[in-house]
Please model this.
Amino acid sequence: MPSAVVIGAGPGIGQAVARRFAREGYALTLITRSERTLRAAAEAVGAPSTLVADSTDEEALRRALDEAADRHGLPDVVVYNAAIVRTDGPGDLSVEEHKNAWAVNVVGALVAAAHVAPAMAERGSGTFLVTSGMPKPDPRRVSLSLGKAGVRALVTLLDAEWGGRGVHFASVTVAGAVAPGGAFDPDDIAGHYWRLHTQPRGEWQGEVLYTGRPG
Model:
């Protein structure tokens, strides 16, 4: 059975992506940073394998990824959906607050990718997808704008390192506020993660820019 790991499975995109891959017959492992979020995600998705790990804790994140592989084998797809979404202008945050936001929004994705990609490359297949956003930087969301620009750069760097060995790296850039039933419905967005994962190698995209469902 193919398997998928979703890091950051809160309400919205994370759970919608998990439901989509579960519907396609994938064995799921959800990784969240708190037991409370984990219980809610497991109930919403349908009781998949669940693990607690803060994406800023390198050792805990690596252990969780290893445990997911022990349960279901090396994943076919890993989705990094962890992020700190907040309103902050230039100069509003301390250096430590910016470091924490960067650690969640970017460094956690780097740690996860560097942990699984070598084995995926050795196998010759695998997908690593990152939730992005803020295609246009917003001075009211400085830390998120910086973080999302960072993950798009990260995807390019990861592809340069492992893309030629069969690992597909891509981001889904969501250009609006996610809400069920609206223009940025999470279930509709989740379809793009599945599409990226199932693209033939010769048609791989590095980014999907989701500008909203036609009204």
User: Anything to note?
Assistant: Residues 95-123 form the longest helix (29 residues).
